[in-house]
């Protein structure tokens, strides 16, 4: 069968990891602008990497430093976007996934009118993309809510955030209605319980009951997602809105039924946010989880009807690795993954950051998601962080990256041949950027090398890696030539 003729090949980036210009042209600080680079913390210790407190926020906002707050500088996409988009076009991109930084349009999140400079910036970015016939895929919330909302309301734990987010989204829909057809609401929406501040603006030491606040935030995001899905469909005829899930594929460590049960429970909790957005209702197992854990989710009259009436058009997801589970963690060798720690699969190799490499797991994930949801799927993040070496003649020989993508594309195509309806694929990330979890530049994902180190030193010049030419060939052949 092969991939559909209109398959959307491309790449994915996030505003907070590439734009920089964190306090330029009226932009307000976001939760990403207080994330620190911690060279003395093990890169595999994600809890310490993403740890945040009220005091650490105050310390961050008392300085304009960009050395240890690298998401403030990014890779200067804010000024270099024409150059970068031209390089993406040279690879043959059909689509580019970006996010619109909420605090660039509404600096504190509570302004009545948007910041015009921010509005104009994204208008210019979309114009540049359309110049090369690149279809925008836009994430509305990608780990960059206004910091002021986290400090004032404890983020999405407060219901008042819904209306503020809806206002921001309505501005995006009305302003860019002729520019953007494909939208995603919340990036990796299931991540609220893994990093509540990054994902939902919840400051842990500001919560009396963190678990309660996390699941209350989930509900508010579900309602907000449903409301903006409805508004998008009304304002942009023919638009499509998707949810976005971190696909944390998990296997049982053994055939011991207790291990199988442990894996089932982990996968069930991973699926639940997408279940709500696709089916328009809470799963019974999740409602029972709330009861058993004394979680009292406050729902306003009409919330459940809003969820039921405004489900998503497609399911997008990130896939980087898989893990294994056991009823007894002493049976496991623990390793890191995409902001999680779990059991290491002895049959798989790992990256320098401990993430297992499991291309067959991508096929399994596609089959699982399509069998569960019967909706078109979109792989919007997949890739490997690696240490690249820039040679004296400006080359980066990254056969390891080509091998990674080739093996994953082969399995992706097998899933499509099995009957999965797959809309497209956007690699994370087509250009080196600041890592979401460790705030590093040395953890490089791109087909394009950016001359910048972990402390922000470098020319910021862009260099094509060997994988650049290879991905160009893959796109040109629509996945038929992976040699």
Automatic annotation (TrEMBL):
UniProt KW keywords: Glycosidase, Hydrolase
SUPFAM superfamilies hit by this protein: (Trans)glycosidases
Record Gene3D superfamilies: Glycosidases
Alphabetical GO biological process terms: carbohydrate catabolic process
Catalytic machinery residues: 381 (nucleophile)
Source species, domain of life: Bacteria
GO cellular component: cytosol
Molecular function in Gene Ontology: beta-glucosidase activity
Family assignment from sequence similarity: Belongs to the glycosyl hydrolase 1 family.
Full protein name: 6-phospho-beta-glucosidase
């Amino acid at each position: 069968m092969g991939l559909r003729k209109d398959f959307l090949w491309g790449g994915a980036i996030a505003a907070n990891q590439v734009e920089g210009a964190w306090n330029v042209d009226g932009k307000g600080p976001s939760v990403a602008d207080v994330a620190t680079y911690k060279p003395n913390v093990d890169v595999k210790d994600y809890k310490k990497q993403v740890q945040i407190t009220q005091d650490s926020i105050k310390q961050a906002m008392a300085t304009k430093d960009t050395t240890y707050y690298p998401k403030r500088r990014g890779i200067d996409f804010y000024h270099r976007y024409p150059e970068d988009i031209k390089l993406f076009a040279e690879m043959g991109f059909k689509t580019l996934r970006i996010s619109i930084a909420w605090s660039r349009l509404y600096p504190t999140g509570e302004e009545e009118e948007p910041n015009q400079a921010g509005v104009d910036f994204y208008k210019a970015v979309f114009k540049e993309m359309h110049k090369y016939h690149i279809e925008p895929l836009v994430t509305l919330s990608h780990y960059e809510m206004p910091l002021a909302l986290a400090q004032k309301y404890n983020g999405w734990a407060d219901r008042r955030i819904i209306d503020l987010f809806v206002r921001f989204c309505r501005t995006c829909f009305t302003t860019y209605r002729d520019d953007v057809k494909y939208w995603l609401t919340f990036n990796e929406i299931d991540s609220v319980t893994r990093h509540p501040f990054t994902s939902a603006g919840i400051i842990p030491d500001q919560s009396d009951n963190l678990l309660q606040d996390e699941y209350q935030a989930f509900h508010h995001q579900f309602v907000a997602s449903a409301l903006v899905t409805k508004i998008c469909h009304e304002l942009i005829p023919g638009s499509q809105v998707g949810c976005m899930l971190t696909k944390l594929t998990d296997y049982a460590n053994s055939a011991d039924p207790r291990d199988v049960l442990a894996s089932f429970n982990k996968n069930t909790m991973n699926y639940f946010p997408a279940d709500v957005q696709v089916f328009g209702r809470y799963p019974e197992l999740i409602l029972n989880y709330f009861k058993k854990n004394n979680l009292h989710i406050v729902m306003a009259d009409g919330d459940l009807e809003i969820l039921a009436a405004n489900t998503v058009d497609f399911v997008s997801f990130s896939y980087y690795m898989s893990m294994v589970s056991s009823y007894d963690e002493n049976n496991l060798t623990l390793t890191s993954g995409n902001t999680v720690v779990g059991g290491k699969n002895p049959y798989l190799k790992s990256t320098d950051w401990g993430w297992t490499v499991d291309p067959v797991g991508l096929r399994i994930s596609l089959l699982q998601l399509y069998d569960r949801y019967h909706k078109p799927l979109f792989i919007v993040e997949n890739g490997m962080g690696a240490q690249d070496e820039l040679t004296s003649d400006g080359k980066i020989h990254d056969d390891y990256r080509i091998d990674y993508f080739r093996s994953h594309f082969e399995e992706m195509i097998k899933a499509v041949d099995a009957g999965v309806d797959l809309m497209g694929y956007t690699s994370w990330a087509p250009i080196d950027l600041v890592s979401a979890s460790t705030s590093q530049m040395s953890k490089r994902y791109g087909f394009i090398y950016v001359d910048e180190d972990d402390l922000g030193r470098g020319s910021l010049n862009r260099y094509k890696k060997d994988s650049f030419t290879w991905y160009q060939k893959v796109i040109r052949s629509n996945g038929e030539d992976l040699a």
